[in-house]
TrEMBL record:
The keyword NADP applies. This is NAD kinase. It is an enzyme of class 2 (transferase). It is found in: Cytoplasm. Its EC number is 2.7.1.23.
Length: 259
């Protein structure tokens, strides 16, 4: 039963309006006593909440009050209780990012969508990428590169013309951002068992930052990335609005001027 709710919400007018409706429909309780966490907000707020509360090992049901809301469900006042009770569960796994900066300080974070390696100045980045000690590319001159999970492959990765991955593909997408050399390199798809190492080849002239979703480390020297299967997030989706279905829609969507 999903009858003991811990409610998390951002401060937008839409979220506060939905909150005022929900408190009359569900049993709101403390985080420890709850058996479900309902999140009101957009994808960004959901990512923050997942990272903050995943240690409690509760399922998350998101209600969109932002823009696209890929990780979220649409709110239906009339059908909310029914949708919640018959919602389907899906587990997703994050990436583990370990960064060493120019001062040889090490910083770690997880990323649910992607790890972004971004140029930090007007100079393009110059980086090498290996997976399991084998070269993917020896010197990529670009605005950066993305390593995306299947769940994150429809976010920044898609905007950078990267591939959309099936949720159960057990793959990661490595996608360049505005590549200059080699100009025609479109990226690659690798196993989610891969251990990725990205090195900044010119830390003085071409500084880069490493970003795990919204956690940034500047002046990165080396970045290690791999899937972290020790951490999982259980997300709940309405039966007619599953994450698998959303990904399939994106895979078949045709770009138009209205999209």
């Amino acid at each position: 039963m999903r009858d003991k709710v811990y409610l998390v919400f951002d401060k937008t007018k839409v979220s506060l309006k939905i909150k005022s409706i929900l408190i009359k429909k569900v049993n709101i309780t403390s985080l420890r006593k709850s058996n479900i966490i309902i999140v009101l907000g957009g994808d960004g707020f959901m990512l923050q909440t997942l990272k903050k509360l995943h240690k409690y090992k509760k399922p998350f049901y998101g209600i969109n009050s932002g823009n696209y809301g890929f990780l979220m469900n649409k709110f239906s006042n009339e059908n909310f209780i029914k949708n919640l009770n018959i919602s389907n569960s899906v587990k997703i796994y994050p990436l583990q990012m370990t960064v060493t900066n120019k001062k040889n300080q090490t910083k770690k974070s997880i990323a649910i969508n992607e790890v972004s390696i971004l140029r930090q100045s007007k100079q393009a980045s110059s980086i090498s990428i290996t997976a399991n000690n084998k070269n993917i590319i020896k010197n990529l001159i670009s605005d950066g590169v993305l390593v995306s999970t299947p769940a994150g492959s429809t976010a920044y990765n898609l905007s950078a013309h990267g591939p959309i991955l099936n949720l159960d593909s057990r793959k990661l997408a490595v996608t360049p951002i505005s590549p200059f050399r080699p100009r025609r390199w479109k990226g690659t798809i690798i196993s989610d068992k891969s251990k990725i190492l990205i090195k900044n080849l010119d830390t003085n002239k071409r500084p880069i930052s490493a970003v795990a979703d919204n956690f940034e480390v500047r002046n990165a020297k080396t970045i290690k990335i791999q899937a972290n299967k020790k951490i999982s997030f259980e997300l709940l989706y309405d039966k007619n609005n599953s994450l698998h279905k959303k990904i399939k829609i994106e895979q078949t969507r045709k770009e138009t001027s209205n999209n």
